[in-house]
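User: Reviewer 2 asked us to show a designed sequence for the structure in our supplementary figure. I'm pasting the structure tokens here. Could you produce the per-position amino acids so we can include them in the response letter?
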């Protein structure tokens, strides 16, 4: 299983795996490093650049240093690292940082030391360490803590008393400082000190966002455990500003070349936009890349929705008798479909019974039925 992706300064693509060590793809050649080459564990969770051109690997058993093809040194529990390292970062001053399940650890020249709560740390279970455009680096955690560290001071955007209501899985920062946060509770935009959350209710295909990668054409590509879907950043901004109710999501999965539609997020970086513009996503069956330089056909208009069957209290109502629901009905079932020639996994349906449903109900292709029970005990539809 792929855990993390990274592009080194020399153009090599690096793939960290859960069990197979780390692999480099450079000039068409694959090279592998495992415990036989000096890694402390074949479960590699994180990759980061070192300032001198080397690399740092975060593993299940600590941090390793790679230089010119060789694992030169490793740090583990003996040096103060508590267990697996999910994220690693070397800052502008050359200080090494490691994100662990107990919190953020800093190398002091002799051993690693954990930042304490009094240091304003964003919580335990550090998941993301991302360089910040204005200096320092972003820190995200699995308990919803988010902030940035600059000049040895951690500035929290959330606190342990007021975290985001989800685990932070990925971060992407725009040139203007806007931060896109992928989480277990949707996509979150942080802009000018304000958080805005987007979920399926606002048009996203899924609520668990593993990756958020820009394609340079005004779109974000979001990885989830059902595939990769694309949304317009202009539409996201319009929803955040109240000018639009929902965004449009376009899903890409096995019909578009993926071996498995299930992306994952178990390490950092959890996704990659390489220098050639390709977008890389880790999946349970390896890495998948999309090239936005190859034009994707514009989305076709949504296909029509057809009613297949209506049942009232278990009795099928002939189509010639479809009309007002008779008084006293206890249960109404409405079956629907669409004559789309595209992939079934791309279909999404929305329905609403005025007077009963407060908002639109969204379902996928596996549930093409609206089911209402205890109708006689409910307020009559308006």
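Assistant: Here is a per-position design you can include in the supplement:
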């Amino acid at each position: 299983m792929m855990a993390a992706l990274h592009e080194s300064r020399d153009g090599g693509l690096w793939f960290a795996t859960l069990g197979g060590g780390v692999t480099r793809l450079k000039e068409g050649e694959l090279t592998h490093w495992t415990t036989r080459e000096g890694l402390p564990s074949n479960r590699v969770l994180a990759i980061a650049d070192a300032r001198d051109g080397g690399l740092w690997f975060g593993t299940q058993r600590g941090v390793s240093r790679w230089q010119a093809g060789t694992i030169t040194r490793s740090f583990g529990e003996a040096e103060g690292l508590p267990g697996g390292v999910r994220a690693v970062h070397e800052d502008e001053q050359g200080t090494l940082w490691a994100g662990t399940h107990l919190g953020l650890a800093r190398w002091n020249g002799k051993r690693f030391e954990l930042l304490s709560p009094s240091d304003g740390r964003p919580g335990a279970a550090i998941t993301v360490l991302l360089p910040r455009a204005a200096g320092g680096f972003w820190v995200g955690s699995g308990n919803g803590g988010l902030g940035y560290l600059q000049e040895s001071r951690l500035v929290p955007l959330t606190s342990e008393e007021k975290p985001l209501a989800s685990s932070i899985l990925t971060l992407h920062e725009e040139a203007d400082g806007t931060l896109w946060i992928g989480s277990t509770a949707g996509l979150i935009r942080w802009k000018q000190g304000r958080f805005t959350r987007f979920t399926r209710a606002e048009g996203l295909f899924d609520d668990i966002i593993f990756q958020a990668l820009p394609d340079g054409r005004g779109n974000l590509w979001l990885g989830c455990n059902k595939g990769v879907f694309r949304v317009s950043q202009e539409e996201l901004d319009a929803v955040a500003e109240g000018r639009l109710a929902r965004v449009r999501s376009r899903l890409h999965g096995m019909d578009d070349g993926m071996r498995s539609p299930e992306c994952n997020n178990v390490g950092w970086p959890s996704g990659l936009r390489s220098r050639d513009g390709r977008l890389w996503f880790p999946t349970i069956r390896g890495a998948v890349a999309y090239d936005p330089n190859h034009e994707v056909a514009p989305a076709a208009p949504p296909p029509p929705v057809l009613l297949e069957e209506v049942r009232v209290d278990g009795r099928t109502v002939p189509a010639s008798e479809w009309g007002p629901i008779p008084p006293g009905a206890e249960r109404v079932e409405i079956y629907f479909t669409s004559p789309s020639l595209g992939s079934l996994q791309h279909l999404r349906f929305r329905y609403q019974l005025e007077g009963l449903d407060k908002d639109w109900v969204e379902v996928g292709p596996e549930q093409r039925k609206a089911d209402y029970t205890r109708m006689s005990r409910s307020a009559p539809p308006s």
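For the response letter, you might also mention the following. The longest strand covers residues 306-312. The chain has a mean pLDDT of 88.
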